Amino acid sequence: MCPRRHFAWLVGLILFSARFACAGRPMTTDDASITPLGQCQAQNWLQADRHAWEGWSLPACTFLPAIELTAGGALHRGDGGGYQVASAQIKFLLRDESPGAWGFAASLGWSHVDAKDPAASIDARPLNFIASYRAADASYLLHVDVGMRRDAIANIERATWGVAYERAPDARLGGFVEAFGVQGEAPTLQAGLRYDLVPQRLSTNFTVGAQCRSGLRDPFITLGFNL
Fold it and tell me: If you average pLDDT over each of 61-70, 145-154, 204-213, which comes out highest?
């Protein structure tokens, strides 16, 4: 378990104030919202630690009411070599969040890693249930994810979870803290800031995070933009 003092650098990134932030990347925890009908968005980011880096791009579009489709992938380079990741997801909005009420969504996904080392190859099939609560005074957003991920290659099923809290000082600047993990692994803590360069069109984000194993281990940073 992480000592309390190790949370200070994460919490210190968050700017507390009166308005809510827009959910989505850079958070790993998903939110109960989708791209507006007939529109698309692209989430792009670079994640790096001491041993490797990954570049991600995930375009998402909503062509049918309450159904969002996402397809993209990543390029990984590190000490153990490189590989590519292919990813796809379909997300169903069950009820949009509104002030003082919960919103709900569910998603089915697929992620494939074809690594040179067969032991590192992954064919994951995640199922996720998502709940988001917007405060009645729009002062914060809370997101809770619970799900299951099946690795078809290893024939293993494991539970997944995530919890995130958002606030923002104005319509353009937002911050968040979150914890997420997979059954049998140490949880990951992450915190970040988002700034809208062009409201509702272009935003940039920065996060820091680490795994929580007898302290914070394997720190990483991400830099990204959404459009």
Answer: 61-70
Structural domains of the chain in order of their starting residue, each with its CATH number: 4-226 (2.40.160.40)
Q: What is the DSSP letter of 129?
A: E
Of 107, 151, 102, 158, nearest to 128 by C-alpha is 107
Q: In terms of Cα–Cα distance, which of 193, 173, 186 is closest to 215? A: 186
For residue 27, give both structure tokens: 């958070």
Answer whether 178's CB lies under 8 Å from 164's CB.
yes
Distant-in-sequence, close-in-space partners of 179: CB < 8 Å, separation ≥ 6: 162, 163, 164, 187, 188, 189, 190, 212
pLDDT digits (tens, 9 = 90+) for 35-66: 999 999 999 999 999 989 999 999 999 999 99
CA distances from residue 117 to 76, 81, 120, 123, 162 in whole angstroms, order as listed: 14, 9, 5, 14, 29
Which residue in 89, 96, 78, 82 sits closest to 43, CA to CA? 89
Look up the pTM and report it: 0.86
Torsion of CA 98, 128, 27, 6, to 10 degrees: 110
